[in-house]
Amino acid sequence: MQYSEIMVRYGELSTKGKNRKSFIDRLGSNVRKVLHDLPEVKVHANRDRLHVSLNGADSDDVVARLKLVFGIQNFSPSVQVERTFEATAETAKQMVKEQLAGSKTFKINTRRSDHNFEMDTNEMNTRLGGVILDTFPELTVDVHHPDLIIRVEIRANGIFLSSETIDGAGGLPVGTGGKGMLMLSGGIDSPVAGYLGMKRGVSMEMVHFFSPPYTSEQALAKAEELTGKLARYSGTIKFLQVPFTEIQETVKEKVPEGYLMTVQRRMMLRLTAALALKRHGLAIFNGESLGQVASQTMESMLAINDVTTLPILRPVVSLDKTEIIKIAEDIDTYDLSILPFEDCCTIFAPPSPKTKPNLERTRLYESRLDVEGLMQKALDGVKITDVHAGQEFLNEEADAFAELL
Ligand code: ATP
Ligand code: MG
């Protein structure tokens, strides 16, 4: 079927009262962004629906892209016909024919936003239903649980027919929730945390700590490529790489082994908070899940959290690893995350970190460091790049290398 438009139904934003307009505007611009390379496509965001006019563009391609946009409840590819009963009936017959396989019952569902049209909704339902019954004797009408629904929308500029309702990504349009800083490692959990934050409308910047020469170019490329995966849900993402070698070396030299990780994490968090302040971030997101590893006990969170008053949001805090993996697979980050390029934490991880660090001791050990000086040097070395949707950074050599390991 050659569709003429995709009719998009808003998600949760319809309940947001006063903010409604800004939600709709943002969704409209997010949809335009994901379709920007299709100049023939036009997007109109109205009060209760968003219409994507295809003007000849491939509907499968557009559907695949819309599925990733947060703030969409569902959508229907539709065909526009002229405002006559005959044209409507012709297209309805064609639609039923294409969707017929396995269906026994159907229903016509008409909405009329243009009250000047000669037929009302009941009349359209009855007459069109009659035509379908005559054409397809194997079908009967079932208004409660039909196998097939033909939706008819009578609008001023034409009549629109659709038969499919495709689930959208749900959530809220990215950008309506303000900016968050995601602490992105190369692991499984933090990309999932980033995805979940974006789903609630937050536009994310990635903060990644790397420690050359202890960590490889590939570890960095992996984090950038993960960012490219997440950018499919939000459009271009800022990637902030923070040099962490000197801090890790100094911490290792001056802090007792059991507290290495706690102090390292405090430094990471301080740096992320400093970047948030500079760049108007309202919260920090990370991929911590309670009880998963030593640094993710509540005692540990208390000792690490101590360095900032910014909210630290942990979208995967109460998910099991298997649940996190399931999401990672769905958003296509899992295969990248399990590539064996060690990040800075793995390499400097002590064999037996304290699972219940004491806050006072943590502060005491940390006072042996020139915290301000170390932070300033790391901040001076921050490099910021734009990562686009689907952008790749790992080369084939890296893939071959990973296979050898
Ligand atoms: P992940 O799978 O996200 O790496 P993890 O289970 O391996 O998580 P940790 O290594 O303890 O857990 O890290 C906890 C969180 O700290 C990560 O989810 C991430 O948000 C942050 N983090 C760890 N390493 C880095 C890094 N190199 N750069 C930025 N953030 C990091
Ligand atoms: Mg990790």
From TrEMBL:
Belongs to the ThiI family. Pfam families: ThiI (PF02568), ThiI_fer (PF22025), THUMP (PF02926). The keyword DNA-binding does not apply. Pathway: Cofactor biosynthesis; thiamine diphosphate biosynthesis. ATP binds at M183, L184, H208, F209, R265, G287, Q296. InterPro entries: Rossmann-like_a/b/a_fold (IPR014729), ThiI_AANH (IPR020536), ThiI_fer (IPR054173), ThiI_N (IPR049961), THUMP_dom (IPR004114), THUMP_ThiI (IPR049962), tRNA_STrfase (IPR003720), tRNA_sulfurtransferase_ThiI (IPR050102). The keyword Nucleotide-binding applies. CDD domains: PPase_ThiI, THUMP_ThiI. HAMAP family: ThiI. PROSITE patterns: THUMP (PS51165). It is found in: Cytoplasm. Residues 60-165 form the THUMP domain. GO terms for cellular component: cytosol. This is Probable tRNA sulfurtransferase. Keywords: ATP-binding, Cytoplasm, Nucleotide-binding, RNA-binding, Thiamine biosynthesis, Transferase, tRNA-binding. Transmembrane segments: none annotated. Catalyzes the ATP-dependent transfer of a sulfur to tRNA to produce 4-thiouridine in position 8 of tRNAs, which functions as a near-UV photosensor. Also catalyzes the transfer of sulfur to the sulfur carrier protein ThiS, forming ThiS-thiocarboxylate. This is a step in the synthesis of thiazole, in the thiamine biosynthesis pathway. The sulfur is donated as persulfide by IscS. One of its GO terms (biological process) is tRNA 4-thiouridine biosynthesis. It comes from Paucilactobacillus suebicus DSM 5007 = KCTC 3549. Its EC number is 2.8.1.4. It is an enzyme of class 2 (transferase).
